[in-house]
């Protein structure tokens, strides 16, 4: 998505540890117009599929996932990283190692929000080593949902997440694919020079 790539070139900051900071429009301050168009782009990419639910993980996945749900008029469910007192004990859970926080969280979704009738599109902001999305795939499989695919806003293609997700047989679409951060600059796939 050219508009997204341009915004990453303008506002993205490369941090140590292969982390891209995009706090100007995605991870802290949110640009709702851009995010709305991101939602539409995902809808277009998965337009031939039946989708009944969007699934993501808190907190940074919620904004793009909500925009997809808004465009499709289907509910958005986000996995929680901490068990809330309002949740019952019927949970689907998975352990996920956080790339940026370097801790393992048990993420969970209340079983009442996923069923075997659901056709789920998984959405997240970033794809690095794939742990977050693999955890969501695990949860969807526990619930016996049909996984339509996974959509990520920014894929770091030099890390292993994309291949791990494809190995699971899940259709992956990424709106911006980063080949490297050589020289502390963002180089997109197909534009490495
Ligand atoms: P993974 O589970 O694929 O290793 O990492 C994905 C999760 O870690 C995303 O949900 C995102 O919150 C966070 N993450 C991974 N890489 C980056 C990055 O370069 N920048 C930011 N802002 N978050 C990242």
Task: Describe the 3D structure.
It is found in: Cytoplasm. Pathway: Purine metabolism; XMP biosynthesis via salvage pathway; XMP from xanthine: step 1/1. Its main location: cytoplasm. The protein has five helices and ten strands, in the order αββαβαββββαβαββ. It has helices at residues 2-11, 32-45, 62-72, 131-142, 161-167; strands at 13-15, 19-21, 53-57, 76-79, 91-97, 104-110, 119-127, 146-156, 172-180, 187-188. A hairpin with a 6-residue loop joins strand 9 (172-180) and strand 10 (187-188). It is globular. The chain has one domain (2-188): Rossmann fold (3-Layer(aba) Sandwich). The model has no long low-confidence stretch (mean pLDDT 96). The structure holds guanosine-5'-monophosphate (5GP). Guanosine-5'-monophosphate (5GP) is lined by residues 19-21, 27, 60-61, 99-100, 124-132, 161. Guanosine-5'-monophosphate (5GP) binds next to strand 2, strand 7 and helix 4.
Brief account:
With 193 residues, the chain is of the alpha/beta class.
Overall tally of structural domains: 1
- What is the CATH topology assignment? Rossmann fold
Shape: globular
CATH class: Alpha Beta
Provide the residue-averaged pLDDT. Answer: 96
Q: Structural class of the helix and strand makeup?
A: alpha/beta
- The largest beta-sheet arranges its strands as 4-3-7-8-9-10
H/E order of the elements? Answer: HEEHEHEEEEHEHEE
Helix fraction? 25-40%
Short key terms for the protein model shown above:
single chain; 193 residues; Rossmann fold; two-stranded antiparallel ribbon; 5 helices; globular; binds guanosine-5'-monophosphate
